[in-house]
Amino acid sequence: MSGPVHPVPLELGIDARSVRLLARAWRERIPVACLDRRLAAEDRSRLAALCRRHVLPPGGREPGLVLFTTGTTGEPKGVLLSRRAIEEACEASAARLGWRPRDRWGLVLSPARAGGAAIVLRCLLAGRPAVPGPARGGPAALARWIAEEGITLLSLVPAQLARLFRELPGWRPPPSLRAVLLGGAAPSPALLAEAARRGVPALPTWGMTETFGQVATVPPGTPPDPALGAGPPLPGRRVRVREGRLEVSGIGLMEGYWPPGSGPDPWSPDGWLVTSDRGRLDESGRVHVLGRADDVIVTGGEKVDPAAVEAFLCRLPGVDEALVFGVPDGTWGELVAAAIVPGDTFSREEFRRALGSLSPAERPRRIALVDGLPLRGGKPDRRRASRLLAVLLEPP
User: Fold this and answer.
1) What spatial distance separates the first Cα and last Cα of the chain, rounded to whole Å?
2) Cα separation, 107 vs 120, whole angstroms
């Protein structure tokens, strides 16, 4: 490429046409900016205008994709990934999962996001089909599609698998399904226990847009077990913990945020990518994600880890899912609040008694019982919960 290059905005959804468009752009070496078709029209127009105003940085490695991420700030920023970084990330995924002749990767994540785009390009580079999932019909349609299409690989966020279990209590996967990557958020111990009970080959994974997906994944064939965290890093990826945050180096990393200056400098002085995730490495080098660094709730001067409170709540009888977040309070600064998806055996009285096992700072002071957690991009959204659930919150 010579001269200034603008990324081509491409509106994508979970359908065969979007798969073909993204594959064609890759083959023709057209750098594209992926726009999620589910965004409001004004948001898509704003991002498309950004592509017309700004060029891709000259020099460096050949650009491949711009993927927009909001993180927890609510303001989108573009992540620029080179073609080589994308290829490296796809090769690392293949080194961990392997490819089989009849593999078919089910696409139920938007290809405008890293999780979905990675599926399309992994399959393209490996010569395997990426199969778009059903547009409607909920968990029942999803279960039929997995069986009828012979899906062997599937990527889900934990909320999707939890809903499948909740609405289809008798469902078990067909023998063809050999791996279900669970990413976007750490799966609860209860979800992994149910996956093990039903024979679902769930593999927790950790990655981000800036790494084009998987950084660490539990190896295939490993029974679901929360003690394994997100598994060891993939070949060519390195992970360390510094000041409580997970940092990544090695192959498949972004070039930077685009346009330049749209995001904070994510690099450490020695060139590691500093993530927004808190975590630890165990003695076997496995990655354990402990939550977002900016999710910490400060109540009465004490810091509360919402992920730790969620893990406690999800272990209680009758709690299918839980999301913990802070709500403003004039006396304490913030109060700990929780959205709970109750199961059939949920008891308010037993739940209230169980909260006494938490420290006073950790104990949720506001509770909302909901049919489903507020999501953004398929992931539980604490910020949205704190806004949307304010009228529902009640003392526990």
Assistant:
1) 61
2) 8
